[in-house]
Amino acid sequence: MSNSQSAAVLDRRGFLSAASLFALGAPTLAAAAADPYAASPFRKLGDAEWRKRLPDASYLVLRHEDTERPGSSPLLKEHRKGSFACLGCDLALFTSDTKYESGTGWPSFFRAVPGALATKVDFKIGVPRKEYHCARCLGHQGHLFDDGPKPTGLRYCNNGLALKFIPA
Ligand SMILES: [Zn+2]
To answer: How far is the CA of 92 from the centre of ligand 1 (A)?
Structure first.
């Protein structure tokens, strides 16, 4: 059930933020509702395979929802133009023009690349939080909050260990 709920959240956000794309004849909501990455080879990798592919700390974040120590990510100081991709599968999740200084100690973004993330609710700290993960490999990235800057008001609070920066 949580999968269909996350898809609904993602579709609504994708539709709102990509209204102009839809006006230009991009795929319909119905088409977007189908999981475009369902057949991805990344979905077939088992836990042991992920452990081999990833550095230990990144493996724990991406595959077991660990959280890196705040202030520890080199990406906090990354200000070049480019994109931030999932370390698990290279899918571009954020672009540099949506990164901002949140003061939290984690790389923060106010908008994701449309269709790149899916969400679910977790209760790891006892209260509901909106967890988000890579839409392709399902690797955990961070949590989504509604105290971000304009124009979205969103804060994607991301683990730097789950990302790789690709300069433009
Ligand atoms: Zn991924």
So the answer is: 8
Q: Which entry of 86, 89, 137, 157 is annotated as an active-site residue?
A: 157
86 is catalytic: no
Q: Give the Å distance between the CA of 36 and the centre of ligand 1.
A: 13
| Whole-number percent of the chain with pLDDT over 90 | 79
Interatomic CA distance for residues 84 and 94, integer angstroms: 5
Q: Which helix (H) or strand (E) holds 122?
A: strand 117-122
Whole-number Å distance, alpha carbon 151 to ligand 1 midpoint, is 26
Task: Give the residue carrying structure tokens 């133009």.
Answer: 81
| Assessment of whether the complete model's pTM goes beyond 0.70 | yes
Q: What is the mean pLDDT of residues 66-91?
A: 98
φ/ψ of 164, rounded to 5, equals: -130, 140
Closest among 103, 99, 101, 106 to 70, alpha carbons compared: 106
Torsion of CA 166, 50, 10, 31, to 10 degrees: 100
Distance 83 CA to ligand 1 centre (A): 14
